[in-house]
Amino acid sequence: MKSSSKASYDYVPVPAFEDNYIWVMADGQSAVVVDPGDAAPVEKWLREHGVKLFAILLTHHHADHVGGVASLLRTFSHADPIPVYGPAAESIPVVTHPLEGGDVVKLAPPFGDFKVLDVPGHTRGHIAYVQDVGGDDLPHVFCGDTLFASGCGRLFEGTPVQMLASLDSLAALPDDTQVHCAHEYTLSNIRFALACEPANLDLQAWDVRARGLREQGKPTLPTSIAHEKRVNPFLRADQAAVREHVLASASAQGVALAAAGSAGDRLGVFAAMREWKNTFR
Ligand SMILES: [Zn+2]
Fold first, then answer.
1. 102-120 per-position pLDDT tens digit
2. Same domain membership, residue 183 and residue 273
3. Does pTM top 0.90 for this prediction?
4. Which residues sit with Cβ closer than 5 angstroms to ligand 1, an ion?
5. Is residue 260 located within the same domain as residue 270?
6. For the sheet containing 140-144, what is the strand order?
7. What is the extent of the structural domain holding 108?
8. pLDDT above 80 for 263
């Protein structure tokens, strides 16, 4: 039987700032930390669990993802220097191992191999890490600010073409891949998703379940690729209902959406949807 992790091996979303999650993978002795924008909550977690910092993975250069690295290195880097992996295409001074798509980060067991995907769009050099721990364990992806539960990242540096291709490469991962996003944006993403696709029954059910989790103070993550394909409008720009609602909203707002308006093709709908989300309240 598959399980999301071995009993002795956990994926913990350590909350930081208002709505960031710093993912910590720990086997009880050592930990790999993804996107530590703030050192304090990570340091506290590692000390409380008596776990050594083993490696740091960074997805992109934004301060809320990299800001805590220098301090963590000062605190924990003693005899063995701690490797810091990050995108070669972005300027991140703390990175010791620059990476590009196709590279594989090989960490000691139990962490296994992390295949690097180029996922530009939110930033120009954004990367994601696909973890293969082998055996019967589920695959995992750490996708930073590219794919969110029921949403996707803002296009700060990249284009809709890039972001759609990046989301396509994530959607092509195995359905049972566990998706570790870097923010708890789920409830507001679901509100927008329902505006795009109000009759989606999976989405309605997910809305109820996600609210329940948040009311109990629990994270709504990880999500899975299969689930996102059912409820994430940014992976569903080819659906008639999504197209209809996105184009109606675009024309109602008089948004300049030549591409979307002319053909209503998948890319045009995606670009219009991303624009609409930027101002959706
Ligand atoms: Zn970001």
1. 999 999 888 999 999 999 9
2. no
3. yes
4. 62, 145
5. yes
6. 104-106, 113-118, 127-132, 140-144, 178-181, 223-224
7. 10-236
8. no
